[in-house]
User: What shape does this take?
Amino acid sequence: MKHTRSILLFAVLVLAVATLRPTAGKAQASPHSQQSQQPAPTIASSVDRQIGTIEKDVVSAAEAMPEDKFNFSPESANIPNASYKGVRTFAQQIKHIATANYFFWSSITGDKLPEGITGPNGPENIKTKAEIVKYLKDSYALGHKAAATLNASNIVEEVAMPGRPNKASRLYLATFAVAHGFDHYGQMVEYMRMNGIVPPASQGQ
Assistant: This one.
């Protein structure tokens, strides 16, 4: 009787293992199958990802700086032996990034530049924090639009920037806007830290 009971228990154990094994296999295959469903990267998506990265850093910094500090520049800090005369204010840094974005990316999309641009720091009539941040966000929206047009057949096609005689490839214009943004984002970071503010992108690091 004991021998029969042992055989029955063994059979139940084998059946349980056999039942669980396919379920475990499916559970392990599920994340892998989800990854395989993700679309393969393209030129457009790769450039769009770069634009999204700098957009997140710059926009979050612009939103984190108090409006009463938007006109700050190191010149007003009167640092001994420093030379900051005439440098851009925090607001002008943002407007300059956005204005350059418009010049670079409108060359790709064919969009008209915003009204009122009279120089590298953008329209003079954009003054409040809300107006400046919107101007910045709109420039990145144009960047995503430009990235979406890129493909293997047109990335080396040369186009001219508005008001400039020299031409550059679509890929260069799309990606140089990102590099230019990071340059000025670094200056924004210094302005924020001089006012005791840690940029959101640097928090927790």
